[in-house]
Design a protein that fits this description.
By secondary structure, the chain is α/β, with parallel strands linked by helices. The chain has eight helices and 13 strands. The longest helix has 23 residues. The N and C termini lie far apart (about 40 Å).
Amino acid sequence: MNIVVTGATSFLGSALVKRLLQGGHRVYAVIRPGSKNRAMLPEHAQGLCVIEQDLQKLNKIEWEILEDCDAFVHFGWGGSGSTSRTQEDVQKQNVAAAVKALEGARTLHCKRFLFGGSQAEYGMCRELMKEEQDSLPLSAYGRAKAEVYRKLSAQCRAWKEEGTADIEYIHVRIFSVYGPGDHPWTLVESCLDTFLSGGHLALSSCTQMWNFLYIDDLTEGIEKLLLHPGRLLEDGLYNLAGDAAQTRPLKEYVERMHKLCHENGSFTYGKRLPNAEGLINLIPDISRMEKGLDWHPRVSFEEGIQRIIDKKENKHEDKNY
């Protein structure tokens, strides 16, 4: 398949690009002009074509890609950090870019368009988070992701009714993903870096229910959605999260990481404020992916954390050498 991936140097995007290349697909990796993160993508990889394009010009992507494509994955998103998640103007620009990305996919005659949505679309939930429930986001970031779903799914329906294009719209609501190469400010990276160095970490109460998904399981799920031979669900909504049976209070994950770091370092609860969305529970229902696409998270939290620790320790040894 020929597959376009925007946000290709991000944590999620670069991991997906590598998986698709390993599967023998041709990948058009779209990055920001002059991106400093170009090294996140493999050099001279067979099947990889890197394109520098501004997110606001994705409707003109056909000028850069001179052949039809099968699928378009839109991970490009500006201002995903905690501060930017509250900025309405930044998030409005992201919605506009997503609309242009879909138009670009239409010009390339793509059959599927997959958008990286977020658990933030659900808002404050105390029970199981199912795709069919109302979306009540609290932050500008969550509202923007939900708006993309409404606009792009409606546009795809309209095109199909008009006979203009037949694009399956897939909206993946991604929960808390972790793995090697993640941003240094995430909880997992902060915990591991602090504990491995013997430092002290001030945390929030960490009493909310939480769920983690390892990066390899995420990319496998997305690949299954892109390659699925039949029609997908009409609403296009899919939760991508870790094993529902492993959902537990966030502090239990912190304590597991501390143990895997041989209890080096220390931590204190109740010293930090929650992020932009507030103290939100993550209790995902992943039955649509499990039943419809035979996808199941394979990597346990302990195994995933140990993989990250091993990479960090090997990197440290290489520097010393």
